Every structure is written in structure tokens, then in C-alpha cells.
Amino acid sequence: MNPKVLIAGAGPVGLTLAIELARFGIPVRIFDKAPAPTDKSKAVAVWARTLELFDRAGLAEPLVAAGVKVKAANIIAGTTKIARVAFDGVDTDYAYALMIPQYDTERILDTHLRSLGVTVERGVELARFVDTGTGARASVTRADGTAEDIEADWLVGCDGAHSFVRHGLGMAFDGDTIPAEFILADLRISGDGPPVEELVSYWHEKGVVIFLPLPGNRLRLLANMEASTGAEAPEPTLAEVQAIIDERTPGGLVASDPVGMARFRINERKVADFRSGRVFLAGDAAHIHSPAGGQGMNTGMQDAFNLAWKLALVCRGEAHEQVLASYSSERGAVAETVIKESGRLTKVAMLSGHFEQAARNFIARHLFGLRSVRSAAAGILSELAIAYDGGPLNGGHVRGLNGPLPGHRLSPRGRDLIGAGPTPRFALFADESSAASAAIIERHANLLEGAVRPAVAAGGIWLVRPDGYVAMSASAGDWRSVGDYLDGLTGNEPIARGAEPAHSLPA
Ligand SMILES: Cc1cc2nc3c(=O)[nH]c(=O)nc-3n(C[C@H](O)[C@H](O)[C@H](O)COP(=O)(O)OP(=O)(O)OC[C@H]3O[C@@H](n4cnc5c(N)ncnc54)[C@H](O)[C@@H]3O)c2cc1C
After folding, report:
1. What are phi and psi of 311, to 5 degrees?
2. pLDDT reported for residue 500
3. Ligand 1 center to 449 CA (angstroms)
4. CA distance 385 to 388
5. 453: Cβ–Cβ under 8 A, 6 or more apart, which residues?
6. Cβ(440)–Cβ(479) under 8 Å?
7. Which of 170, 166, 143, 141 is nearest to 155 (CA)?
8. Which among 149, 344, 360, 380 is placed 20 to 30 Å from 289, CA to CA?
9. Superfamily of domain 5-44+101-173+271-348
10. pLDDT, tens digit, 9 for 90 and up, residues 161-191
């Protein structure tokens, strides 16, 4: 069967994209060269914004049930508490970091995808592809030596950091490698602390060691080391891990029962464009960065959420293809910020030199004493602060109107979920419904929910995208601006002839 969308790679990002597209009724095929799903714990944090977006597919509940909730992150230097950032003040139903091994996240996504009638084709490798101008033709090979050519309208490379698709497009993966080595181990810890229900980062003059709670009373340990030179460094040992714990924590902690110990380096890289013609990149294929803050997998999944509703509308013939141009600019800007923020966090934690570290600790303790700084940190970590400021899909807004700006998230709390269900639909919020609003809903039945929802704030109209970000706002009664924006999405003429379209997509 030739699908509308062909997805290369069934990691967390490919699975998320396949689920969203299948949910919206788009014929999709997804394959992976690995014969079986990963058995590695890899990314262990799923943040609030990702859970909000999964909730639209009914997936937040099974994920939350399989993980542990971490309600705060701590920084400790020696025996001094530098900071405690609690997540309970953030405006979401998921005011915590959900800790869940990546193999469990992928298992839950895979099961859900099957329930939508799509099965990952495993042991199937992308060997060649070509952009035909009106679609993409991919040649895949199977472990048994058979091959198949698949035609699709669109190809999405969710094939990880060493992406075959990215290489095939000849795209540069510009950036750097951080000159340090890190070790990772999932283990059990006995003794006094760290608190099993909170994330703890110990800053020490020899480096940082971080503990993240995992299900089953285990902890993920991350620590930086001197960069080794020459021959490939051996796997870390339990004795090496214990020595780091003894050196960098206040003491009294005993590590045991390690699994999945690894040594790795951090790359900070990104492509300039997430799209080339009929081919897209998403997730690690498009951007990689420090695991500090646990943003990597979340950022990739949110690439998939961003792309899915746009591709679905275009595949269904309900929006102009130009909508797809916004994917790279919106997600490219987010990836750039994540690279910058996670890199900064890593460098601050790894800072060396006695005076530099003393100054860092002093400044950090005072900064994190401020509620506004703790609140900003929680917003960044939870990814609730992500906004598409200046994005090409942002329409107008009215100065002085309360409520989120175009490109900003509308909190789903206390509201029926936007973008849930089998069709990607924008939501309209206003104080009044009128003949004019009814006319717009009728004219754009393929883009809009069937009824106006109560206003976000007095005096305005809000149009909100299927991924929950505000598209535009207008003054109460200014339905023409809403109509013009929607006409821009479909490529139609504005409703009000003779008037300048207030909001249109770039040519
Ligand atoms: C040891 C380790 C620890 C990590 N810890 C964290 C963490 O704490 N926090 C965090 O946010 N992130 C972490 N990460 C990164 C996180 O795992 C990735 O960001 C995430 O897996 C990216 O998902 P993805 O779907 O984009 O790519 P991947 O998970 O890499 O999936 C890509 C898939 O594509 C398949 N593929 C590749 N080439 C082809 C081809 N030619 N044809 C078909 N299929 C192909 C691969 O088999 C793979 O299944 C960690 C990674 C590792 C390795």
C-alpha cells in the first residue's frame, strides 16, 4: 500500500508522528531498520507540555501510569542547598517531570499505534529515496534480502542522530562537540538521600553528578568526566561510579545493581532547514544537544506534534501547502533555544576553578532565591514556556487584550482539549456567537470546530491552532479578521471583498 506519509524510523519521534497522523485519518507507513524496539532506558523525562499534547490522543494517562512523578529539581553544592525548583506552581494538569524509561514510552506508543491500525514494519531499512517533486519515492530493504519501492506524498526522516535521510539530502549538521565525557548508569542507591522523589544535581569542584528517580526505586546517575584521549574508553564500572558518588556528594550513599552503564559525549548540532521539498526531518535527525534538562526526546516529539496537524490538513486538502513552510521556522527556533539553554546549563554545572565555582554558587543561590527565577526555570524545563514568537502562522492581535499572544500556548486546563479527536480543527473563543461567526464556521467547516467556545478574556476573539497555540486574536465582533486569516490558510479569497487581508501567509 502506498501511504500519504512515509516515516523512516520508529523511535519516540517517528511513533508520535505516526500516531498523530493515523488519528487524523492519514494513510501512513512507518518502518525501522532495527529488528526490535529499543531495550535501552535512554531519555527518561517526559515533561508537562509533551503530556498535554499526548492527552489529545488519550496517551497521557497510560504514560503517567507507567512512570514516577518528580515534583522538584534541587541543586546542592557541598552541603549547601543552592536551589529547589518546584514544578507544582506551573499552570498545567501535569505539574511534574514524568520519569519513565524510553523503552516503556516506546512500548506504550507502539501499542497505541497498533490500536489505530498501523504496525511498525521492523527490520526494514531505507536504502535510497528521491524527491519526485510531487512526492517521494523510497527504496527499502528487508533483513530477508527482499526490497520494495514505496511511493508517498511525503517522506519524514525520524531516523535519529545519524540520519540517513539528512545525509541523503546533503544537509549539514552544524555545531560542536562539548570537550568532556559523561557517564550514565541506572542503579540502586542506599544510604542517606538523595530524595527518591526529586531530581538532585550535586555541584562539586571535580564536576557534577545528577540523580534522577526512575520507576522501581532505581535512579539514573549522570556525571561529567575529563575528556579521555586516544583509544576508545572502556565501559564505566560500578567502582568508578561509586568513587564519583563518594567524591561529589556529601557521602553515605552506596550504589548497587547497575544496568545500562554508558560513556558518551555531547554534541550540539542542528540542520538549517527541517524540510527539503517533499522531505522533512524531525527529532534527533534535525537537532541534538546536551541531555541537561532532559529536553531532547521531548523536543523531538513536539516537532512531530507540530508537523502532524499541518501535514494532516494538507493531505486532507483542507489547508494550503504553504502551511508546511511554518514547520521548519517554528521548530528550528525552538531547537536553537534548547541547544543554547541546555548547553548553558551544562557549562554552568561543569564550571571549573575554585573562584569561578564560588562565584557561580553565590550568584545561583541568590538568583534561585527569587520566585520569578524559579518560576521561569520551571516554565523552561516543563516546556510550557515554548512559544512561536514571530512565527509565519501568527496572525494579528489586539493591543491591550488580556490572554495569550499569537504563537503562545493557551492553557488547556479546565477546557475541552483542542486538537483531540479524528480531525485537526482550530478552536474559536469569543463572548458572542453571531450570524457572522456562524458564516465563518460554515465556510471553514474543514478547519474549525462546529461551535464558538467561551471567550479567553473579555473583549476579544481568539483563534487557536489544533496544537493549542494561539493563531490570532481580534477585537470582539471583528469576525472579518478571523475569516481573512482562515482564507489565508486555505489560499481562498478574503471573505470581505475589497478589504486588505489582515492576516495572510507569506507568499
Ligand atoms: C544513552 C542515552 C541516554 C540518553 N538520555 C537522554 C535523556 O536523559 N534525556 C533526553 O531528552 N534524551 C536523552 N537521550 C536522547 C534520546 O534518546 C533521543 O533524543 C531520542 O531517542 C530521539 O528520538 P528519535 O525518534 O528522534 O531518534 P531515535 O530514538 O534515535 O530513533 C531513530 C530510529 O530510526 C531508525 N533508523 C535509523 N536509520 C534508519 C534507516 N536508514 N532506515 C530505517 N530506520 C532507521 C533507528 O533504528 C531508530 O530506531 C539519550 C540517548 C542515549 C543514547
Report:
1. -60, -40
2. 34
3. 36
4. 10
5. 415, 416, 427, 428, 429, 430
6. yes
7. 166
8. 360
9. FAD/NAD(P)-binding domain (3.50.50.60)
10. 999 999 999 999 999 988 778 899 999 999 8
Helices (H), 96-210: 102-115, 164-169
Q: What is the pLDDT of residue 228?
A: 64
Question: Can you give the pLDDT at residue 380?
Answer: 87
What does the pLDDT average to over 134-145? 95
Q: Where are the domains of the chain?
A: 5-44+101-173+271-348, 175-267, 387-507
Over the stretch 266-316, which tens digit does the pLDDT of each residue have? 899 999 999 999 999 999 999 999 887 788 999 999 999 999 999 999 999
Q: In this model, does residue 502 exceed pLDDT 90?
A: no
Mean pLDDT over the full length of the chain: 91
pLDDT, tens digit (0-9, with 9 covering 90-100), for 408-426: 999 999 899 999 999 999 9
Q: Are 2 and 150 in contact (CB under 8 A)?
A: yes
DSSP 282: -
260 conformational bin, left if phi > 0, alpha if psi -120 to 50, beta if neither: left
Ligand 1 binding residues, C-beta < 6 A: 8-14, 31-34, 42-45, 102, 125-126, 158-160, 164, 184, 262, 264, 283-285, 291, 294-297, 300
What is residue 136's predicted lDDT score, i.e. its pLDDT?
A: 98
Which residue puts its alpha carbon closest to atom 7 of ligand 1?
Answer: 43
Pocket test of ligand 1: the residue of 7, 16, 32, 70 to mutate, having most ligand atoms within 8 Å of its CB, is 32
Q: Which CATH number fits domain 387-507: 2.160.10, 3.40.50, 3.40.30, 3.90.25?
A: 3.40.30
